[in-house]
Amino acid sequence: MGMTQQAEPAVTTPPASGPGMERDGRTKQRPLALRLLARPEIGVFLGAVAVFVFFLVAAPPVRDGSSMANILYQSSTIGIMALPVALLMIGGEFDLSAGVAVITSALTASMTAYQLSMNVWVGVIVALVVSLAVGFFNGWLLVKTGLPSFLVTLGTFLILQGVNLAVTKLVTGNVATDDIQDMDGFDQAKAIFASSFDVGGVQVKITVVWWLVFAALATWVLIRTKYGNWIFAVGGNKESARAVGVPVTFTKISLFMLVGFGAWFVGMHQLFAFNTVQSGEGVGQELIYIAAAVIGGCLLTGGAGSAIGPVFGAFMFGMVQQGIVYAGWNPDWFKAFLGVMLLGATLINLWVSRTATRR
Amino acid sequence: MTTTNDSPVVELRSTGKAYGNIRALHGVDLKVFPNQVTCVLGDNGAGKSTLIKIISGLHQHTEGEFLVDGRPVRFSTPREALDKGIATVYQDLAVVPLMPVWRNFFLGSEMTKGPWPVRRLDIEKMKKTADHELREMGIVLDDLEQPIGTLSGGQRQCVAIARAVYFGARVLILDEPTAALGVKQSGVVLKYIAAARDRGLGVIFITHNPHHAYMVGDHFSVLRLGTMELNASRDEVSLEELTNHMAGGTELTALKHELAQVRGVDVEELPEESDLTATAS
């Protein structure tokens, strides 16, 4: 055994390491500004500020308080869904069915309550179960078959899209559901999912509050809990995570169910805000959610990201969507604007993180 | 130093594994004692990986017996193996490169505090413990927040070993820990293997380098084409014999004769079959 004892340690410590703790002397602390810039959340925050300032200048009506409330509302409907989509993305997967799943949830609640003439809360609960079940199905199929999430959720996306239209027509004979405004429990549910409150004479939608609450909760879970640790691990290296005892199957499936929960929440908002649901809507929204998460600094391949980044990402989208209207431009430009923003934000993020992490 | 009178922690009795109609492993006997380093040697495709996958709970054996503490077991997840005190340091080290060192250290066994709805990671304590444990092993890192992917191969290896030792492993499986390392770094890893053994662990050291194996090994098993070719303790085998077995053993002798017939290769220096005395048990 003698030889092994003679081997030198690989980590040699410099002779004069100062009065503090022993250090290996191989890492140098980079300046704070550079370290901050290296964080993708800061990049998207600066982007959001830039877009905000741009519209403040280009579209004077934006400066009004009620316009701002409107922009925040628009951002929150994207943002609430962007959060679970972002967590799922950090966990290494994405969900193409998220957009139509919102409508599925709203349709389920509406039709269950109306057709059975029951309290709307029955519909709301059934919709929650259905949404979680769709999420579970996505996750379970993914884990069991090992297929990529693109394929699995593309399948569910098409299925839900078809089912939404066909079942709605079958049940109501129409492409939209019946108005449930005067049913039992409607006002109560509306208070939770779609009410407004007054802040200094400006009506703010309650979804803005929910959005920020969910964002704070998601941030806490991601950074401060076991489950958050697992999310990063299954997205960063699934095999390693499994090998050290992380419940990979549970984490993946529950992340998909979290997206289901988000779809249910936004679906309930739409139902109680507009009283009826158009069965063909929701297509294309999933890409908006994914784009918001990516702009927010979540790595498309998993393993890195935050919950606060997508908040700014969603705000950028809401800002542009409403800003174009307030500026008096043709709203058809919205999608083109989004595309440019997505590419721009991604490139700037890439450039900034490369510059800032250079050694 | 070696206490062979103890009963083995892990024991394989003519264990085998078939993937469909492919027999990856067949009739393997192995005993792992505490305070001992059991080396498993073999060329690529010899079945080393399959063997450790069975012991670590990633795969299940299809024939023979697998005993822990004398009781037959069949693990369905690595978690179960970990709960029995069998920890594996994989070739790819089972770390998540983008995650900080301390998060990797505690991944899957995180420390928490607080009652359920607000149960959260005890970050302070985890960082402190990780730092302490790493220093115990002689690894000094400035910044435990740095992604583990930025460490060198040897450092990562040692972090992984320190992690296994900290979490109370009784059996430590090391899958080719020195394969991708330089000379000096290999030395460090071998030192930690000896350190882990002296702390009372049973170490299973998988390698295809007989020199590394012989430096720390107490018992040697050579696998070839999925079966056990040699199973000998340190006093039954010399480094030369071990090297010969690794290089192809009896097959090499046959090759030698063939070469001699083809074109007068000087085969005097090559060993004779009689030199390879250590027999497979």
UniProtKB/TrEMBL annotation, chain A:
Keyword NAD: no
Record's bilayer topology term: Multi-pass membrane protein
Cell location: Cell membrane
Membrane-spanning residues: 36-59, 71-89, 120-143, 150-167, 202-223, 244-267, 287-304, 333-352
Entry annotated with the keyword Ligase: no
Region Disordered: start-end pairs: 1-26
Chief place of localization: membrane
Superkingdom of origin organism: Bacteria
Role description: Part of the binding-protein-dependent transport system for D-xylose. Probably responsible for the translocation of the substrate across the membrane.
Listed name of the protein: Xylose transport system permease protein XylH
Native species: Streptomyces lanatus
UniProtKB/TrEMBL annotation, chain B:
Keywords in alphabetical order: ATP-binding, Nucleotide-binding
GO molecular-function terms, A-Z: ATP binding
Gene3D superfamilies in UniProt: P-loop containing nucleotide triphosphate hydrolases
SMART domains reported for this sequence: AAA
Keyword Chloroplast recorded: no
Stretches assigned to the ABC transporter domain: 10-250
Pfam annotation, one family: ABC_tran
Presence of the UniProt keyword Nucleotide-binding in the record: yes
Full protein name: ATP-binding cassette domain-containing protein
Naturally occurring in which organism (per UniProt): Streptomyces lanatus
